[in-house]
Amino acid sequence: MLSVDRADFAPSNPYSDSPIGIGHGATISAPHMHATALHYLEDVIKNDSHILDVGSGSGYLTMCFAKMIGPNGKVVGIEHIPELVELSIKNIKKSDASLLENGVIKIVEGDGREGYPKEAPYDAIHVGAAAPELPSQLIDQLAVGGRMVIPVGTNYQEFLQIDKTAPDKVEKKTLMGVMYVPLTSRDQQTGIRTRDFL
Ligand code: SAH
After folding, report:
1. In this structure, which residue's CA is closest to atom 6 in ligand 1?
2. Parallel, antiparallel, or unpaired for β 142-153 and 122-127?
3. Is residue 164 part of a domain?
4. How confident is the model over 18-25, as a mean pLDDT?
5. Domain contains 20
6. Ligand 1, atom 2: nearest CA belongs to which residue?
């Protein structure tokens, strides 16, 4: 985290330990939550790991993951708001454009609840928004020996660690209570619902 300057990713107060709005109903998470996520995933991250960052928002954590792997590793950031996809690419370019150029970082627009099968299986999956329940497609895309950290819940959310110990077996551990923005559809997040047009 010390090697990635948050000033390239946060629109204001980059060094305060709090989430900061980045527009479109999203925030750059607080540094202590970024640190917590990296802490729980670091043991499964190797030089050539494939990592999926769901809800990559500002791109800050995606960048931190890229610093933990080598040129043969890959981190995919998946984000469903096109403006945030653009923003994160801009931020990453300010921070270290070479990681986009050499393909260590790939930012894609899409529904993170479905994961990104093209680069699966993943040694580590980070989910940066709270899912109402565990998304099965993300578990499917986890490598055996891989780990996912994910906030799960609606009003009350828990930060869970999911370890895939065999092709059809996962171990679940509750790490702590947390507060994240929801992992949801684009329309729900931006407040535009179909009925508004009826
Ligand atoms: N980890 C990022 C962003 C955290 S906010 C950071 O620290 O900068 C959560 C992000 O998840 C938001 O950017 C939001 O747009 C995104 N998100 C919510 N639901 C999503 C979905 N279904 N697919 C992809 N991204 C989603």
Report:
1. 28
2. parallel
3. yes
4. 96
5. yes
6. 57
| Distance from C-alpha of 153 to C-alpha of 170, rounded to nearest angstrom | 19
Residue 68's CATH number = 3.40.50.150
CB within 8 Å of 56: residues ≥ 6 apart: 62, 77, 78, 79, 84, 88, 107, 128
Range(s) of the domain holding residue 112 = 6-197
| pLDDT exceeds cutoff 60 at 16 | yes
Q: What are 129-181's pLDDT values in tens digits?
A: 999 999 999 999 999 999 999 999 999 999 999 999 999 999 999 999 999 99
Per residue in 42-93, pLDDT tens? 999 999 999 999 999 999 999 999 999 999 999 999 999 999 999 999 999 9
Instruction: Establish if 104 belongs to a structural domain.
Output: yes
Q: How is residue 123 written in tokens?
A: 């040694």
Atom number, ligand 1, closest to the C-alpha of residue 78 = 24
Q: What's the structural domain count of the chain?
A: 1
Residue 1 lies in a domain: no
End-to-end CA distance of the chain: 47
Phi-psi region of 13 (alpha: psi -120 to 50; beta: other; left: phi over 0): left
Which of these is catalytic: 18, 29, 95, 185?
Answer: 29
Name the pLDDT band for 194 (thresholds 50, 70, 90). Answer: low
Burial of 110 (C-beta count, 10 Å sphere; 0-12/13-18/19+): middle
